[in-house]
Amino acid sequence: MTLKQYRQKRTFTKTSEPSGKANRKKTPTSKKKSTSSPIFVIQKHAASHLHYDLRLEVDGVLKSWAVPKGPSLDPANKRLAIMVEDHPYDYHDFEGTIPAGEYGGGTVMVWDKGTYEPLEDMNEGLKKGKMEFILHGEKLSGIFHLVKLYKAEKENEWLFFKGKDEFVSSKDILRQNHSAQTDRTMDEIKNHQKPVKKKG
Ligand code: MN
Predict the structure, then answer these.
(1) Distance (Å) from CA 10 to ligand 1 centroid
(2) Residue 103 within a domain
(3) Strand partners, 160
(4) Ligand 1 centroid to 52 CA: how many Å?
(5) Could you list the residue range(s) of the whole structural domain that residue 50 is in?
(6) Does any domain span residue 20?
(7) Cα(133) to centroid(ligand 1), Å
(8) Which of 78, 85, 89, 176 could form a disulfide with 5 if both were Cys (CB 3.0 to 4.6 A apart)?
(9) Separation CA 15–CA 30 (nearest Å)
(10) For 130-181, how does the pLDDT look when each residue is reduced to its tens digit (9 = 90+)?
């Protein structure tokens, strides 16, 4: 797993995003029971086009997909998810503003975060183009699927959608628009309003 692509796209003297130099112990992501769970984060990113970045910890890095329409709790809403470069583990709590003119320039919010339970080996799932996992977030809970659209090696289009369980809902979860990390809105992050430590 390499973060070369991630680093090549960014100038760390200009952006406050992590360079991801620190090595990290790998949390197992096979379906075997483990004492620690891998993490996930969904960052709301007001770049040139607003989108949501889904990131799942696999082998010490964050496998990443840009989801233009964001997640849905309705299994019928299969959302296009474009696989992008791996991000360093340290990216999981990045919230702030990437300067205009830099790669991904715009405001980033930790929209949801938590742990996930792989329902099958994640590396096999990445190869097969079919992953199933349970999210334990503050906004998203329950089974979700990531399914690759095409077999061709270079294709990066996947679908991200809710699996059927008790957490299915027709309510628009995207209306919950405060940070899961600091409870701030996008404007408050943009205006550098001081984060308040979330209660509970
Ligand atoms: Mn993004």
Answers:
(1) 13
(2) yes
(3) 79, 146
(4) 7
(5) 4-9+37-190
(6) no
(7) 22
(8) 85
(9) 34
(10) 999 999 999 999 999 999 997 666 679 999 999 999 999 999 999 999 999 9
